[in-house]
């Protein structure tokens, strides 16, 4: 079987999500670096694969796929029975995984990325962090994490008592919030969120992917 | 089999999306009205089902689910073989459905809702439409639709030559953009997008959902 190609770059949150999933599923892959800093993701050669010019894109034989959350679902389904089960074990469990994946994608991701962008990327490009914008998005995350705290007081992981895509989807952005943005208190001030974070961020697959820090 | 309960309201984009899916799958359901104007969605009774206080939430026997995009996937899987197939017919087709669902959820939804909010909701609450914000988001939607135009010149629907959840997810927001926001030219100025929109918005299930205008 041909190796899956992942076109992306090692520090990208979306690329890391896909790599971590591949590691969890014990699937061989090759990372083909798309140098976003050099604008490689906007070149015709890349746009022909992913017209949105975002990373990552995967190539699995004839199939080309983009959108990291869709890619991880594809991998979880294709490699069911191999490596870590990431989609639960019944239709109902799968539905809860989908639900919490949507929560991440619709409510957690945007404020988290805005904080990351303001604290890490804006200064790198010569701009000034907009503290009011950071504060506004920290408040949004606080509301979401308070709900996570309640949920995780009843359930070891987000979708149930099993690790799943829903937890995995939180790894890359939360890692940067905690390690590089100084927002670790968002996690550590909440007993069950803290325990959950310590558990999922210690997984060997994640440690392998996050070894090369920014 | 107990009827599926949908807690939401008939004018809500996300509720309409779920109702349309139920109709496509020919599944009986009961709409239990949760009226945000009356603050129903923030009552303890509702928050106990959906701690995020958003609509819709469904109850299917013991299973309570929220996040419309997650609900759609559950319905498409549970009722595979009944009504319209909404997930394609192979793992690869399913993956492309997931991909274009993510495009809608991650890239299309936010600017479209911002336009709707500025044109319809802000004036309703006594504020003034921010035309610059509208313009900025119309540009964003325009750029996306240019990519859709290219895609739909090669493929009848977004995921392939079959109607799927990916197309269905675009119905409710696009309907409002075209009708009450006066942004129909975004669609009608693009030949293949226009044909696609005409096709999917003419589906009997969608017509039925929009019979009761907000």
What report would you give on this structure?
The structure is a homodimer of 214-residue chains. Chain A is an alpha+beta fold and 214 residues long. The first copy, chain A, folds into 2 domains: 4-85, Glutaredoxin (3-Layer(aba) Sandwich), CATH 3.40.30; 91-209, Glutathione S-transferase Yfyf (Class Pi), Chain A, domain 2, CATH 1.20.1050. Chain A has helices at 13-24, 44-47, 68-78, 91-124, 131-152, 165-168, 171-179, 185-188, 191-201, 204-210; strands at residues 4-8, 29-33, 57-60, 63-66. Chain A has a 4-stranded mixed sheet with strand order 2-1-3-4, with helices on one face. In chain A, strand 1 (4-8), helix 1 and strand 2 (29-33) form a beta-alpha-beta unit. The model of chain A has no long low-confidence stretch (mean pLDDT 96). Chain A binds chain B through residues 51-52, 62-63, 65-67, 69-71, 73-74, 77-78, 91-92, 94-96, 98-99, 101-103, 105-107, 110, 147, 150-151, and chain B through 51-52, 62-63, 65-67, 69-71, 73-74, 77-78, 91-92, 94-96, 98-99, 101-103, 105-107, 110, 147, 150-151.
Biggest β-sheet description of chain A? 4 strands, mixed
The low-pLDDT segments of chain A are none
What's the multimeric state? homodimer
What is the β-strand count of chain A? 4
């Amino acid at each position: 079987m041909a190796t899956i190609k992942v076109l992306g770059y090692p520090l990208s949150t979306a690329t890391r999500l896909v790599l971590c999933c591949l590691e969890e599923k014990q699937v061989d892959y090759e990372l083909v670096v798309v140098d976003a800093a050099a604008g490689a993701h906007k070149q015709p050669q890349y746009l022909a694969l992913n017209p949105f010019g975002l990373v990552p894109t995967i190539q699995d034989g004839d199939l080309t796929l983009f959108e990291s959350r869709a890619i991880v679902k594809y991998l979880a389904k294709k490699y069911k029975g191999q490596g870590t089960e990431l989609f639960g074990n019944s239709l109902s469990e799968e539905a809860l995984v989908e639900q919490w994946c949507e929560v991440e994608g619709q409510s957690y991701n945007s404020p988290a990325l805005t904080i990351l962008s303001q604290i890490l990327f804006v200064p790198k490009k010569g701009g000034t962090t907009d503290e009011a914008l950071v504060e506004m998005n920290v408040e949004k995350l606080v509301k979401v994490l308070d709900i996570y705290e309640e949920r995780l007081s009843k359930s070891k992981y987000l979708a149930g008592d099993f690790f799943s895509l829903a937890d995995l989807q939180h790894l890359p952005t939360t890692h940067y919030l905690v390690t590089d943005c100084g927002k670790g208190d968002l996690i550590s001030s909440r007993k069950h969120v803290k325990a959950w974070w310590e558990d999922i961020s210690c997984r060997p697959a994640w440690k392998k992917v996050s070894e090369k820090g920014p």
